[in-house]
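Internal tracking record. Fields below are filled automatically when a chain is submitted to the structure queue. Please do not edit lines marked as system-generated. If the sequence contains nonstandard residues, flag them in the REMARKS field before resubmitting.
Queue: standard
Priority: normal
Entity type: single polypeptide chain
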Amino acid sequence: MDQKLFDLAKAAMEQAYAPYSNFHVGSALQAENGKLYSGCNVENAAYPEGCCAEASAISAMVRDGARRIEEIAVIGGGDGLVTPCGGCRQKIREFSRPDTPIHVCGPDGLKKTFTLNELLPDSFGPENLE
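SYSTEM-GENERATED OUTPUT FOLLOWS
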């Protein structure tokens, strides 16, 4: 994982708006165009209606016209692994390949790297609708 990707995810985590859960998450991805995009979780009073960090980063990528994730980093606090939630795994699936690396990080760095297929095996995707 590139240090810039980690640094961007960590900076995004620091900007998270999480007054209800107090659980800050950041994400950064590199798209096929070489650009980096980031996002953070954003909660609201109608908790749990909010936006996950991964979804925010994907939205920024799509808004810029890119459509393929080359790799993505997710960072959260605590001792355990902060992997993407089920909904975000599906969102990542929409814009990546089965072997796309998903880097799970803590504030001190990389904890573990998974492929999308490891986190979401036998997944449903656009090709299932053809």
